[in-house]
Design brief:
The protein has 300 residues and is mainly alpha-helical. It contains twelve helices and no strands.
């Protein structure tokens, strides 16, 4: 017990440094989003009281933290610094986490418009968020932001077994695979539901947006699990990724059926989401699929 307390106290200064670094990363992420956004986020949130913009921004900031945590799981590789002391090692680790986090912020902002057009492609997301203040669209964007952040975190976490250039190339390759998985899942979700998610979300159906966003977070967790870990070779890594992807698709589809049969047996979920626009049912579906994805993540 005493040894554990001593180790905790010894690790506190280092932890505090990374807490401060995390706050710096969040501030830089907000500045980056301001640069990449054509409208004033502060004006929309404060003067226009636009909850949709606030929800969208919240998802983005959480995604940035996920990327930051993924960067923390990068192994520290010191070249020519043996015996030069803990301070130098810590400084190099801080710099590495900072640079990976900056790269993740850029990827998040570059990927956002691309993913918007490929996933919610039947209507203008900017119009729904800014003019209509559509909470359903914002909820879907919240889930998409978190899913993208999880993909980036999984892609950069672990040991690539090579130089920094090789690590960057490997991370970008798996980042691309993760985005493709998100796109395929959104198409699968659309096909496997008896309603058009685009029409429902565009028509201010908050329940469908929340349910879709929750499913995106769930598949993002599965993508993170599929991407996380040390790189052991293209063949083995890609095979493992595909297996996790297929398992994720099957798991989330079965769960949606079970929710209908067991958790909410008195009403059909699709009817509750569309006809009744039941936000409570949407949160139940989201909580079940996210929880199950977490169980899969921790048990395999």
């Amino acid at each position: 017990m005493e040894a554990t307390l001593v180790n905790t106290l010894q690790g506190f200064p280092k932890g505090l440094i990374f807490v401060i670094l995390g706050i710096v990363i969040l501030v830089l992420a907000k500045l980056a989003r301001d640069v990449f956004t054509k409208y004033s986020i502060d004006e929309e949130v404060t003067k226009k009281n636009n909850l949709a913009v606030a929800i969208r921004l919240s998802g983005y900031l959480i995604a940035v933290v996920l990327v930051f945590l993924g960067a923390l799981y990068q192994p520290l590789t010191l070249i020519g610094t043996e015996g030069l002391g803990f301070d130098l090692q810590l400084m190099e680790e801080v710099i590495r986490v900072f640079l990976y986090s900056l790269a993740g912020i850029i990827l998040l902002n570059v990927a956002r418009p691309v993913m918007d057009r490929l996933i919610l492609y039947k209507f203008s997301i900017e119009k729904e968020i800014l003019e209509d203040q559509n909470i359903g669209t914002a909820a879907a964007e919240f889930g998409l932001n978190l899913a993208t952040g999880l993909v980036i975190a999984g892609a950069i976490a672990g040991d690539s077994g090579g130089t920094e250039l090789v690590s960057a190339f490997t991370a970008l390759a798996f980042f691309g695979m993760g985005l493709i998985l998100l796109i395929l899942f959104s198409l699968f979700y659309q096909i496997s539901t008896p309603f058009d998610i685009h029409t429902e979300i565009e028509n201010d159906n908050y329940a469908v947006g929340i349910a879709f966003g929750g499913n995106l977070i769930a598949i993002g967790l599965i993508s993170f699990k599929a991407l996380f870990g040390d790189f052991v070779g293209w063949g083995e890594s890609i095979t493992a990724f595909i297996i996790y992807a297929v398992l994720g698709f099957i798991l989330l589809y079965i769960l949606r059926i079970l929710i209908d049969l067991l958790l909410v047996p008195s009403i059909k979920v699709s009817q509750a989401l569309t006809t009744e626009r039941n936000v409570g049912v949407a949160f139940i579906e989201s909580s079940v699929v996210i929880s199950s994805a977490l169980i899969l993540f921790l048990s395999i």
